[in-house]
Write a structure and sequence with these properties.
This protein is of the alpha/beta class. The protein has helices spanning about 10-15, 45-65, 80-90, 110-125, 135-150, 175-185, 210-235, and strands spanning about 20-25, 35-40, 40-45, 70-75, 95, 165, 185-190, 200-205.
Length: about 240
């Protein structure tokens, strides 16, 4: 049953441009049932279906958060990087908003080793130990720290595989999606008209190029996660 506070309206989705798909020449035929019309050479997404699947996704993350589950949000395109980081931090989720390193999940042992190194270097920097090393050694370790911060900064507190992964752009984050499929990790994916709706557990048809569209979808999911976390805290 949909939760009352998701409040997903067609008006706000239209205002955010959620309904604008790609050009009619650049589409995946599997998206046919998610498309309602063609307009000036552009496919128009069926917003009734968007609202339905977004509501289902909100229900899923609310339920998972209310049971203390962990989330990972993935969106590495430059224009969504800040949006992804802010959304994840607000909902106390892990995130990847730079480059997805191949094997980040499927080769978790290596990722975990890098995270331990990252945490150790951060501790050494905070305690001032790096500054007490010879300049050459300190400079090398600071470069390592900067590199690790860039690529692993959003998952520095992750101690195991996530329970649910939210993917902002299916095509851009295809490697991440395939890793989730391999590991059986449930995924929620924004899919534009050029995507394959069958790859994710919940596919939300939406414009994955417009910032306003992505922000709206993420805000709904983040709100549901925050509500679920509050429920978890109250019942603990």
């Amino acid at each position: 049953m949909a939760k009352k506070y998701w409040n997903i309206t067609l008006e706000e989705m239209m205002e955010a441009g959620v309904h604008f798909g790609h050009g009619t020449r650049k589409w995946n035929p599997r998206m046919a049932s998610y498309i309602s019309a063609k307009r000036k050479g552009i496919h128009i997404t069926n917003l009734t279906r968007t609202a339905r699947f977004l509501s289902e996704a909100c229900d899923l993350v609310f339920d998972a958060a209310s049971r203390g589950k962990q989330f990972l949000i993935v969106g590495t395109k430059n224009k969504v990087a800040d949006l992804v980081a802010r959304a994840a931090i607000r909902a106390r989720c892990h995130y990847v908003n730079n480059k997805w390193l191949g094997g980040m999940l499927t080769n978790w042992y290596t990722t975990e080793t890098r995270l331990h190194k990252f945490r150790d270097l951060r501790t050494e920097q905070k305690t001032g130990r790096l500054n007490r090393l010879p300049k050459r050694d300190a400079a090398m370790l600071k470069r390592q720290l900067s590199h690790l911060e860039t690529y692993l900064g959003g998952i520095k507190y992750m101690t195991g595989l996530p329970d649910i992964v939210i993917i902002v752009d299916q095509q851009e984050e295809y490697t991440a999606l395939r890793e989730c499929i391999t590991l059986g990790i449930p995924t929620i994916c924004l899919i534009d008209t050029n995507c394959d709706p069958d790859l994710s557990d919940i596919s939300i048809p939406a414009n994955d190029d417009a910032i306003a569209s992505i922000r709206l979808i993420l805000n709904k999911l983040v709100f549901a996660i925050c509500e679920g976390r509050s429920s978890y805290i109250r019942n603990s």
